[in-house]
Amino acid sequence: MIEQTARVVSTQRNHAWVLPLNSMACNGCSTKSGSACSNAFSFFNSSKAKCEPIYVQNPLHAKPGDEVVVGTQGNTLVIYSILAYLLPLVSMLVFAILGSQIFHVLQLPQEAGAVLAGVAGLFSGFKLANWLVVRMNQANESMHPVILRHKEHYIYPAASLPH
Question: 92, 122 in Cβ contact below 8 A?
Answer without folding.
Answer: yes
